[in-house]
Amino acid sequence: MIRFLILAGYAGLMMYLQVTDKLNQFINVHYQYLAVMSTVIALILALFQLYTWVKEDPKADHAEDCHHQEHDDHDHGLKKPYQRSIAYVLLALPIVVGTLFPTVSLNTTIVEAKGFQFPLSKESVGDPQMETQYLQPNTSLYYNKEDYQKQMDELMAKYGDQDSLNITDENYLEVMELIYNYPSEFIGRKISYEGFVFQTKDTTKDTFLFRFGIIHCVADSGVFGLRITLPEATKVKNDQWLQVTGEITSEFYAPFKRNLPMVKVASVKSIATPKNQYVYRTF
To answer: Is the pTM of the predicted complex or chain greater than 0.85?
Structure first.
């Protein structure tokens, strides 16, 4: 019965996340078919467990338990009740967390608390955690060097000759990755994209226009985008959503001690917060 409840709970939770469009805050939407498959499999297994539980005779079940208890003395499985209890608790934990804890979209509060950093070269740091990227989407972690370069070459062939880059939800992460990988190739080009404002708290009050992105799942999610300079007298605040059009330039950014691509904004328009604030990497 416990197995049925766990499997049914998982299937119910996954169906709820899909119906309410909250699943896209946990995994890349391009992998949603895997979530559907796991939901169907869990539901089938739950029904099988229910059928088995209803069909079994309690007396026969007791005799079988005695037989299994004798056999368990020579088995290496979960022989003791507390071991099975721990296993069931661990299996049920995702259901409890998914049900009781609210799903909250990320915002600049997360950026302020977690911070963001551009990756330093391996020669200049000893901490591998510093290789995590929060400005540039980095898919090289998932490929060998040759395959990654091949992917970048294909993307450059796709966007390399465009004088004006129109960034959408679908191509946001791949274009941002190209801009950071080959900044000199994009300097002087026009760009148009949307995002939310993040202003640093230091004296320079640098402004960035970000999107939260998911490469595979929420574990590798991050904040990705470009530093921007707005026209004079333009007033913005954190978490405000903008649509900007401007020119890609490059400028030295003191906190990171390196040049960063940025956008010199020519026109800016305040827009409503989109229903889905995340963007996803396509492969």
So the answer is: no
Structure tokens of 260? 């960063």
Task: Give the largest Cα separation in the chain, rounded.
Answer: 83
Question: How far is Cα 165 from Cα 44, in angstroms, rounded to an integer?
Answer: 47
Facing residues of 253 across strands?
A: 258
Q: What are phi and psi of 259, to 5 degrees?
A: -75, 140
- For residue 19, give both structure tokens: 């119906």
**What token pair was written down for 124?**
């200049």
CA distances from 20 to 17, 103, 280 (A): 5, 11, 18
Cα dihedral: 154, 159, 161, 163 (round 10): -170
Can you give the pLDDT at residue 226? 95
Q: What are 225-253's pLDDT values in tens digits?
A: 999 999 988 899 989 999 999 999 999 98
How far is Cα 270 from Cα 242, in angstroms, rounded to an integer? 5
- Sign (positive or negative) of CA dihedral 207, 172, 29, 151: negative
Which pair of structure tokens corresponds to residue 42?
């869990």
CA distance 34 to 99: 20
